[in-house]
Amino acid sequence: MGLFDKFQTTATQYKALLEGIGRDPFGVSMDEMKGPTRAIVNGKEIVLAGTNNYLGLTYDDEAIAAAKDAIDQSGTGTTGSRFANGTYAAHRQLEIDLAAFLGFKHCMVFSTGYQANLGAISALAQPPEDVILLDADCHACIYDGAQLSGAEIIRFRHNDPDSLDKRLGRLGDKVNGKLVCFEGMYSMFGDIAPVKELIEVAHKHGAYALLDEAHSFGVFGDHGRGVCEAEGVLDQVDFYTGTFSKSLASIGGFVASNHPELEYLRFSSRPYMFTASPSPANVAAASAALARLKSDQSMRADLWRNAKRIHAAFTQLGFDLCAPESPVIAARLKGREQAFMAWNFLMENGVYVNLAIPPGTPNATSILRLSVSAAHTNEDLDAIINAYTALSEMLSAEAA
Ligand SMILES: Cc1ncc(COP(=O)(O)O)c(C=O)c1O
Predict the structure, then answer these.
(1) Ligand 1 atom closest to residue 138's alpha carbon, by position in its atom list
(2) How much is the average pLDDT of 195-218?
(3) Is the full-model pTM beyond 0.85?
(4) Residue extents of the structural domains in the chain
(5) CATH 3.90.1150.10 applies to domain 2-49+297-399
(6) How far is the CA of 339 from the centre of ligand 1 (A)?
(7) Does any ligand 1 atom lie closer than 6 A to the CB of residue 280?
(8) pLDDT value at position 1?
(9) Beta strand pairing status for 239-243 and 208-212?
(10) CATH class of the domain whose range is 60-295
(11) How far is the CA of 173 from the centre of ligand 1 (A)?
């Protein structure tokens, strides 16, 4: 009995919220995929506006052909970790290609982006002499990596270089290694970090900067190299982490760096050494998507055009948006119940977005998180705007 007691309160609250709307926002099954922006759910076609398919490459012809080819050539799985039998020529080649694209000397491919952060952070910082400083809104995998390391963890205020400066200043010379972790674009609100200032502060105090560009790779910068490219500080980043599960439309993750010591992680990072490597199909699809990203800038242009249209429309409708224009457009609702109800209303109106509620959100906010794709057609965007227009009318009628 005792083992399950801790779930009771949350389970009861959750059940009450689900009964109110009659479907589970955290258990949606895409019964049939119809392309990068459409799926059948419960017999009805819906527009997908809560994916991370920023460049819309999940159905790219070249990526699909490369994945099929890789299965024919190398089979369906590697059945081993990077450290043992799970490193194929394609894993190595992708490391070389990612490093070259980003301008780093070293790169390691992991099985997921979660594991890339988990593996890099937990191996780089060690107790008792090292300290990890985290932006308060960092993704769970950054927190988990810090916890796995066992090193002391200090949080600084979200996107606040002064807060980081104060905390690093207080440490003085007491500690050995200092690792500062933050993200380019934050996944829930779509807000952008002041990466230039954060890196400057980190380096001023002799700390290393680890930047997770999971949501900004392929999206920001003239070449899609992320927020740090847009801000002209790509070469200042000590450790650049990323994922294949968003703009690269596959599964896997990576860490890139100019520090040759990154290679030590190959025999000291547990999340690298003790899990199977990404499958040949996943690696081939990510490689093909990377090639597409490098050669075709029009996808990023489409993405931003779509993001701007949605952001402008929602602003006009009066939604309380969490951040200026970016491909993640999150609207604040008044509490959990309203957010559940609004999420369900959008589903009934043919649009899937992400529902995010505390404790998974910053500042205990309840939000509808919409993410735009380059693959959204004008028809998709019209459907999204129509559904949000109806939602805004319904919320206004309720408030009156
Ligand atoms: C900021 C951030 N980092 C890392 C990850 C993990 O990526 P993956 O899906 O490859 O595990 C995510 C996933 O949502 C993320 O939002």
Answers:
(1) 1
(2) 98
(3) yes
(4) 2-49+297-399, 60-295
(5) yes
(6) 23
(7) no
(8) 67
(9) parallel
(10) alpha beta
(11) 33
